[in-house]
């Protein structure tokens, strides 16, 4: 994307450790616009009963999320493109999305149909754009809303949300009316569709052949570990799917330049923050997976975040601090001088080089991203796309000086731990029952590291507000532990590795956030270091042996 490179990467800051906390669109978007993790919004899927626009409304967020807050602060707000799944040609005004001065939304069941989209402007009825390329239609709408925003003479917020490079999806008319039935899905996925002018680009380009691409030996855990190696025909199709993604992104690239040039013409570019990101990542062939998302691995969760604007360093890559989508609403508040909300799960990302490096080097370092998912996963190509049940999991991405780790607990209570400093493809599960030796993670015995990460995940899996922002403080109220490095001190071994310990565990696999399925929680079972318990120094863990869990 040369225009993103020219206008955003070269003129702004790229945040290399930014994560979507739920690797699918609707829950991720609700997190982005509320500053809350999905376990707190209870919007955990893309469609009812656990997700989609109707769930967003029923949870009370239509009158209490970012655009509403901005209007209360004196901003005009504009939006074009996809807002949420199951925002449809039938429910678009019952109720209408709250908080927008002007809008032109993509509507289901035509949201992902590149050549047959339907938009709905302000209070008007839906309008079909059959035969027109969706991203180009959206671009013209974005330019029009930008003109409206500038001409209104008030500070403004504008979102342009194209669907590229999502798969092309043709839905049945009734696709949004009932919960998804894995055995009878009412839609058809195929590869993305590029604009006609981009169809011949990227000839011969293939999915990068990283170590975890279609590996000879199975990797991962749960259902992923049982996936067959893809044959040559399958791999060739996935390369085609990848090229179509690249091609479809070229119209998005042009949209970025179109917005930048119009901001410049209006003479407001130098006083505008421009933020570029995605609601989730994507895998194609890694771990033998068909094209799709919904997993906790790096390809699915590590997403771009680029910021350009006043005081933001140009051509700078911000590394060494982990950030998430839950941090974006707090970040926008900080940029605009709006007081932070106490119920934010995230915290503001410093966007200046000086501010970022202070947090990285001096302040309480941000090292963690809590990642969570409920329900099933499915492929979006044409091969082996049967929905995979029991894809519910909690995971933790942790990165700091001397460690780069991923830890997860699946709803069938299988565990994963990867030392990504030496295994960036997440191929060698250090907690696999098949390990013949005692593996190391970040230079320590894997079980020692896993015990700390499990405790941190126990806090994060149901955290809220400050608990999410400072989870180590829950485990160590004395303030002596602020990072994994601190927690690995030998004096804490008995605390973390105690027998009779409550660990992260599921009661059963559920397709949504159901309290009785989630297992032990910090609120009900947690006890901090120094609290009452055996020896007076540990007690947050109450039942079971570590050996039994792993």
Mean pLDDT across every amino acid position = 92
Helix and strand content put the structural class at alpha+beta
Please report which band the strand proportion falls in: under 5%, 5-15%, 15-25%, 25-35%, 35-45% or over 45%. 15-25%
Low-pLDDT residue intervals, each spanning 5 or more residues: 532-550
User: Quick one: biggest sheet?
Assistant: 5 strands, mixed
What order do the strands of the largest sheet run in, or round the barrel if closed?
6-5-4-3-7
Q: What assembly state would you assign to the polypeptide chains in this entry? A: single chain
Overall radius of gyration: 23 Å
Please give a structural write-up.
Helices cover 27% and strands 15% of the residues. It is built from 17 helices and 19 strands. It has a five-stranded mixed sheet with strand order 6-5-4-3-7, sandwiched between helices. A hairpin with a 2-residue loop joins strand 18 and strand 19. Helix 1 crosses helix 7 and helix 6 runs parallel beside helix 7. The C terminus is likely disordered.
Write the layout of secondary structure elements.
Blueprint (H helix, E strand, L loop, with lengths): L1 H8 L3 E3 L2 E2 L5 H10 L3 H4 L10 H7 L7 H7 L3 E6 L20 E5 L9 E6 L5 E4 L3 H18 L4 E6 L6 E4 L15 E4 L41 H34 L8 E4 L20 H4 L3 E4 L7 E3 L4 E2 L3 H9 L16 H9 L6 E6 L19 E8 L2 E8 L4 E5 L20 E2 L2 E2 H15 L5 H4 L1 H5 L8 H4 L5 H4 L25 H4 L20 H4 L1
Parallel strand pairs: 1-12, 2-13, 3-4, 3-7
Antiparallel strand pairs: 1-11, 4-5, 5-6, 8-9, 10-11, 14-15, 15-16, 16-17, 18-19
């Amino acid at each position: 994307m040369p225009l993103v490179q020219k206008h955003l990467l070269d003129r702004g800051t790229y945040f290399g450790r930014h994560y979507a906390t739920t690797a699918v669109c609707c829950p991720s978007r609700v997190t982005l616009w509320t500053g809350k993790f999905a376990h707190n919004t209870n919007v955990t899927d893309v469609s009812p009963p656990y997700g989609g626009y109707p769930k967003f409304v029923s949870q009370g967020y239509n009158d209490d999320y970012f655009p509403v807050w901005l209007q209360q602060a004196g901003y005009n707000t504009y939006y074009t493109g996809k807002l949420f799944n199951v925002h449809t040609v039938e429910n678009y005004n019952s109720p209408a999305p709250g908080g927008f001065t002007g809008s032109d939304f993509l509507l289901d069941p035509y949201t992902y149909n590149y050549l047959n989209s339907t938009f709905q402007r302000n209070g008007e009825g839906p309008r079909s754009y059959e035969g027109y390329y969706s991203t180009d239609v959206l671009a013209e709408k974005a330019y029009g809303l930008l003109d409206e925003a500038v001409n209104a003479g008030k500070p403004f917020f504008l979102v342009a949300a194209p669907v590229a490079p999502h798969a092309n999806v043709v839905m049945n008319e009734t696709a949004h009316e009932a919960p998804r039935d894995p055995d009878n899905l009412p839609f058809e996925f195929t590869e993305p569709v590029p604009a006609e002018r981009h169809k011949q680009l990227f000839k011969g380009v293939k999915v990068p052949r990283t170590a975890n691409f279609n590996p000879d030996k199975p990797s991962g855990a749960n259902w992923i570990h049982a996936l067959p190696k893809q044959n040559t025909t399958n791999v060739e199709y996935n390369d085609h799917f990848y090229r179509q993604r690249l091609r479809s992104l070229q119209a998005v690239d042009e949209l970025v330049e179109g917005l930048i040039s119009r901001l410049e013409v209006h003479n407001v570019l130098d006083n505008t923050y421009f933020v570029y990101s995605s609601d989730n990542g994507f895998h194609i062939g890694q771990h033998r997976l068909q094209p799709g998302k919904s997993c906790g691995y790096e390809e699915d969760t590590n997403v771009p975040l680029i910021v350009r604007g006043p005081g933001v360093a140009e051509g700078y890559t911000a590394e060494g601090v982990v950030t998430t989508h839950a941090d974006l609403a707090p970040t926008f508040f900080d940029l605009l001088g709006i007081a932070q909300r106490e119920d934010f799960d995230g915290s503001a990302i410093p966007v200046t080089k000086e501010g970022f490096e202070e947090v990285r080097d001096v302040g309480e370092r941000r090292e963690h991203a809590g990642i969570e998912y409920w329900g099933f996963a499915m492929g979006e190509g044409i091969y082996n796309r049967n929905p995979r049940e029991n894809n519910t999991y909690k995971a933790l991405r942790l990165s700091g000086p001397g460690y780069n780790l991923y830890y997860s607990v699946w709803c069938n209570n299988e565990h994963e731990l990867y030392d990504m400093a030496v295994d960036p493809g997440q191929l060698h599960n250090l907690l696999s029952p098949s390990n013949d030796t005692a593996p190391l993670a970040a230079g320590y015995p894997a079980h020692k590291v896993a015990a700390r990460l499990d405790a941190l995940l126990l806090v994060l899996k149901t955290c809220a507000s400050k608990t999410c922002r400072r989870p180590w403080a829950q485990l160590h109220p004395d303030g002596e532990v602020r990072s994994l490095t601190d927690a690995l001190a030998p004096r804490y071994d008995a605390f973390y590795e105690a027998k009779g310990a409550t660990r992260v565990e599921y009661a059963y696999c559920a397709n949504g956030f159901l309290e009785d399925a989630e297992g032990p929680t910090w609120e009900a079972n947690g006890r901090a270091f120094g609290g009452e318990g055996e020896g007076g120094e540990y007690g947050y863990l109450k039942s079971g042996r570590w050996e039994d869990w792993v």
